[in-house]
């Protein structure tokens, strides 16, 4: 859900695999979502509390979606405050919530404990509810067309901060606050602020919490979770080995190194060939089809010959249905010299890919009127 700005001449040519955070920065408070169920029991014991209380609190958080201690009536009233403070400290405060699509698209700007700002988006469709979540406050990947990337990295988010975005959305649905009646989150996409694989440990923890059955986690299907990356090749390979078969979305945006070096600076470290090889291997290991994300930018990467080249690059790894292409209409930025592709050029791009047998879709552009692209709302907050 990128936000497209003007290209910077100062785009760095190489980037570290994991972006370093400032030393001495305070860490988010420990929350039960940071821990496995066994670790929660051990943590309780270490605090001199009964271990089974951790499971009760986990049931409230992940299964009942309760955030009011007064509703946790199975906890002794004399101990309730201590238990909630130890396991369910407040992680984020909503600053603004904007709505579109008659209330079925809700974008929330959150303030974290250290005043860092992040965004999440809830999108309700007739057959599903998708949460788009952030994994970092800011981003260090420096992609020049992305508002988040232009702002730089503030810090990694904790596992619990990532999970809390989904749980908050689940609460809103369960309480009937979103038009369409009570519902549940069926899909989560890591396409908000940040590069998920640059915050690997916390993101993997969040994947486990999202997919583990209650009360350990939310009990979602791994098939409903998508992790987007600009192409951190070693981390893609590491994710493939973990046995959590989430969908991988590779933000490619160009099929040739010359252009991708400019659009996605990490390409100077991992070439198009290396990156697509890693995506292909992920599909081979997990048996999950990879999504190739491609933001359509007029006159930049939307030429018909680049559609042909993209098909060549993808089919060179085999035509066994390992991939599909998701074209993303550019989300225009006021004052930007880049604009969305002409609809005729977009249609021709789709036609050429489909003619080569590559499934291709064009992403729904929800939330444009509420600054739906990641980083756009945070950038305007004073």
Strand and helix map with partners:
Layout: H1 37-46, H2 52-63, H3 77-87, E1 92-100, E2 105-112, E3 117-125, E4 128-132, E5 136-138, H4 147-151, E6 153-156, H5 159-174, E7 187-190, H6 200-211, E8 225-229, H7 233-240, E9 247-251, H8 257-263, H9 272-286, E10 290-296, H10 304-315, E11 323-329, H11 343-355, E12 360-362, H12 376-380
Parallel strand pairs: 4-7, 7-8, 8-9, 9-10, 10-11, 11-12
Antiparallel strand pairs: 1-2, 2-3, 3-4, 5-6
Helix pairs in contact: 1-2, 5-6, 7-9, 10-11
Descriptive overview:
The protein is globular. The protein has two domains: 32-87, DNA polymerase, domain 1; 92-380, Aldolase class I (TIM Barrel). The protein is an alpha/beta fold and 382 residues long. It is 33% helix and 18% strand. α5 (159-174) packs parallel to α6 and α7 (233-240) runs parallel beside α9 (272-286). Strands 1-2-3-4-7-8-9-10-11-12 form a ten-stranded mixed beta sheet, covered by helices on one side. The longest helix has 16 residues, at 159-174. It is built from twelve helices and twelve strands. It has helices spanning 37-46, 52-63, 77-87, 147-151, 159-174, 200-211, 233-240, 257-263, 272-286, 304-315, 343-355, 376-380; strands at 92-100, 105-112, 117-125, 128-132, 136-138, 153-156, 187-190, 225-229, 247-251, 290-296, 323-329, 360-362. β2 and β3 (117-125) form a beta hairpin.
